[in-house]
Amino acid sequence: HTEDELSRSSHSNPGKSLVNGIKTNPASNSPKSSLPVPMGPSVYVDLAYIPNHCSGKNTDPEFFKRVRASYYVVSGNDAANGEPSRAVLDALLEGKSQWGENLQVTLIPTHDTEVTREWYQQTHEKQQELNIMVLASSSTVVMQDESFPACKIEF
């Protein structure tokens, strides 16, 4: 198709749009679209921040299969928006089980939430099997009349 043909086809089908030259339905154009994720090698990093405050909107087992970290930070603290998401924490277990190697992984929650506590208690045996440690910190940092939990990570 030429650019003009692609442009006309998107105008003649107002409910359709083009993504990378492929016609798609905008209503189904969510972060978890039907377009396949391109295959590629896994990436190994020291520290990864779980996207979107550990919301299930765009993090699934595929993320944890592809982004392999020594430390994952879970920052969600908004139960009304599903942050952190139990499904994402379960996806970590599922993704890590596919690694084929038993590397140590540390999960660092930045908030003490009911979802995180329940997940920790209910999946503790699986975490041990997969060599996943959940870091709990009793350290507190006080700055300008504000205090918050903190932990120190050394590489």
Write the layout of secondary structure elements.
Blueprint (H helix, E strand, L loop, with lengths): L2 H10 L4 E3 L2 E3 L18 E7 L1 H4 L6 H6 E8 L11 H12 L7 E5 L4 H9 L1 H6 L2 E3 L4 E5 L2 E5 L5
Parallel strand pairs: 3-4, 4-5, 5-6
Antiparallel strand pairs: 1-2, 7-8
InterPro entries: MAP1 (IPR026074), RibonucZ/Hydroxyglut_hydro (IPR036866)
GO molecular function, one term: actin binding
GO cellular component, one term: synapse
Task: Briefly characterize the structure.
This protein is of the alpha/beta class. Helix content is 30%, strand content 25%. A hairpin with a 2-residue loop joins β1 (17-19) and β2 (22-24).
